[in-house]
């Protein structure tokens, strides 16, 4: 009987232990009996106690809320460790509890509450009340978020996109929540908007091409060209994020929910008065706002810009980038050349505010004026000389020297040489100045042969004797008389019968200004004298001999 009683007692004891002792790997209830050294000591029954770090009782970014006497659920990992204590975890209990709750919400497509608490590669971590989920960067907002700082630790709703309890993976989206609420708000707000309405909005985002303005649940695009009548290089020049502005609704697309906004439409269009304020040929001071390859834009007043084409920038600087002539923000004087109100274009001129340097040069340097300048360039057809007013004059090959061929004379010059020349012509229309170096000091040939004509008899001095003839000089000009022109008599056509320094009368057979040479002949002079004698003292057919006629002529000369 006693044995039976002991067996019954043991069975009852085992049954009691099996019923009341919690299984390892389950969530159990416990009571906080003490808090010490940053840990909570929890009694989970049957003389089992465990320790849990206080931080496990806190939400990310918050202080732990736990006091002695609180009842809490913990996860029993092991009934006893080396110290005889139960190994328990509040965090794992919360995770199990959270997974049950989240799986139900996922199945019912319900929103869940969580808080972003960390940043990981590709996105963020979110605490969903015990379970940690991944929030991809693309699912944070409807537009890319540069700074997620303000969202950290903030309790807000999320939509579960995917979850796998076996792998412990949960993927959530904040964007899905925003899009859903935005769609409802957009429909409501857009239904109240009409084109032409003036509304208040808050600048939500700024891009290079404009700004997105929140109109109370729906965003509208304020394009950079609709911000002001003047040129705006970047929206940040006149707007800042969070600023409240007044805008006009330009266009509303009810189907796509796109709203176009404008600020400048609330101000008077400055172009309405352009014609009256900026008449043609008037000169104004403006500010350079933009420089391109083809010219520079100059702001005449806020909202009114004109283009100075590269061809109208300088009288002298051709094929130069506009940035070499003016700089951004520089104040310049410009002349109004043309106004096209329909196309909202003003053509301006920079060079027109300064006198044409070729006109000035023509007035101050008439033809025949001597000038001095530096050789700027040497080409196959002449020299370019730098002159006053930043303009060039050209000395053609043919105007370099009286005595040398142009190709030979140009070899004597190099870039940087300072030379003197005479102005021979100024063509204002073609912007061309012709110069001559050889004309300095006048034309010696023209001066020397000024009264000499073909047929004239002149006296020359022999300067050299050669086999083919003799070289002679007249007023500093050299000429050559060929052997055949030395005498009418063939026997006398001997160069050696002359001596250097002899004075000889010759007849001019040719005056060539181009080659600057005189054609001379003793033979022609003798023939002319004979002809004159025959005409004066007899005819060749009268029976008188030539000797008689010449003798009579000579006798008269002696008398």
From TrEMBL:
What keywords appear on the UniProt entry? Repeat, Ribonucleoprotein, Ribosomal protein, RNA-binding
According to the entry, every stretch annotated as the S1 motif domain falls at: 25-91, 109-175, 196-264, 281-351, 368-438, 455-523
Gene3D superfamilies named in the record: Nucleic acid-binding proteins
Q: GO CC annotations? A: ribosome
Entries under PROSITE patterns matching the protein:
S1 (PS50126)
Q: Per the similarity annotation, which family is this?
A: Belongs to the bacterial ribosomal protein bS1 family.
Q: Which PANTHER family match?
A: 30S RIBOSOMAL PROTEIN S1, SMALL RIBOSOMAL SUBUNIT PROTEIN BS1C
Give the protein's biological function: Binds mRNA; thus facilitating recognition of the initiation point. It is needed to translate mRNA with a short Shine-Dalgarno (SD) purine-rich sequence.
The name under which this protein is listed is 30S ribosomal protein S1
């Amino acid at each position: 009987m006693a044995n039976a009683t002991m067996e019954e007692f043991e069975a009852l004891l085992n049954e009691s232990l099996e019923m009341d002792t919690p299984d390892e790997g389950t969530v159990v209830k416990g009571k906080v009996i003490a808090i010490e050294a940053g840990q909570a000591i929890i009694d989970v029954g049957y003389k089992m106690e465990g320790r849990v770090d206080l931080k496990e009782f806190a939400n990310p970014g918050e202080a732990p809320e736990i006091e002695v006497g609180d009842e809490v659920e913990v996860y029993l990992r092991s009934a006893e460790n080396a110290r005889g204590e139960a190994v328990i975890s509040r965090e794992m209990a919360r995770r199990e509890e959270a997974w049950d709750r989240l799986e139900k919400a996922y199945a019912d497509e319900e929103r869940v509450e969580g808080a972003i608490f960390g940043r990981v590669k590709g996105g963020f971590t979110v605490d969903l009340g015990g379970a940690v989920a991944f929030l991809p960067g693309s699912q944070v907002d409807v537009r890319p978020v540069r700074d997620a700082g303000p969202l950290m630790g903030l309790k807000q709703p999320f939509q579960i996109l995917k979850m796998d309890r076996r792998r412990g993976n949960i993927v959530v989206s904040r964007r899905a929540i925003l899009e859903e609420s935005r769609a409802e708000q957009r429909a409501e707000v857009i239904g109240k908007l009409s084109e032409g309405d003036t509304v208040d909005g808050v600048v939500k985002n700024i891009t290079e091409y404009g700004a997105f303005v929140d109109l109370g649940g729906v965003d509208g695009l304020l394009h950079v060209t609709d911000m002001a009548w003047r040129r705006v290089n970047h929206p940040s020049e006149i707007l800042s994020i969070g600023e409240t502005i007044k805008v006009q609704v330009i266009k509303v697309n009810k189907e796509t929910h796109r709203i176009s906004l404008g600020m400048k439409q609330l101000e008077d269009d400055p172009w309405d008065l352009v014609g009256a304020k900026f008449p043609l040929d008037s000169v104004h001071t403006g500010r350079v706002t933009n420089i391109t390859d083809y010219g520079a834009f100059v702001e005449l007043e806020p909202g009114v810009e004109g283009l100075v084409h590269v061809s109208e920038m300088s009288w002298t600087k051709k094929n130069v980038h506009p940035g070499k002539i003016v700089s951004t923000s520089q104040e310049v004087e410009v002349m109004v050349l043309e106004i096209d109100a329909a196309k909202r274009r003003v053509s301006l001129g920079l060079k027109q505010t300064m006198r044409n340097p070729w006109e000035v040069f023509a007035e101050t340097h008439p033809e025949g004026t001597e000038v001095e300048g530096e050789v700027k360039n040497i080409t196959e057809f002449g020299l370019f000389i730098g002159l006053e007013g930043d303009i060039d004059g050209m000395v053609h090959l043919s105007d370099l020297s009286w005595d040398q061929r142009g190709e030979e004379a140009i070899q004597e010059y190099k870039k940087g040489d300072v030379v003197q020349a005479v102005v021979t012509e100024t063509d204002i229309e073609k912007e061309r100045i012709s110069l001559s170096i050889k004309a300095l000091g006048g034309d010696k040939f023209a001066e020397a042969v000024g009264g000499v004509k073909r047929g004239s008899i002149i006296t020359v001095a022999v300067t050299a004797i050669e086999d083919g003839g003799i070289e002679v000089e007249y007023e500093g000009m050299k000429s050559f008389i060929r052997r055949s022109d030395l005498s009418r008599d063939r026997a006398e056509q001997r160069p050696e019968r002359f001596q250097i320094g002899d004075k000889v009368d010759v007849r001019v057979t040719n005056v060539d200004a181009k080659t600057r040479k005189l054609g001379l002949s003793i033979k022609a002079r003798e023939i002319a004298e004979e002809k004159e004698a025959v005409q004066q003292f007899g005819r060749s057919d009268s029976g008188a001999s030539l000797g008689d006629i010449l003798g009579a002529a000579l006798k008269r000369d002696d008398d």
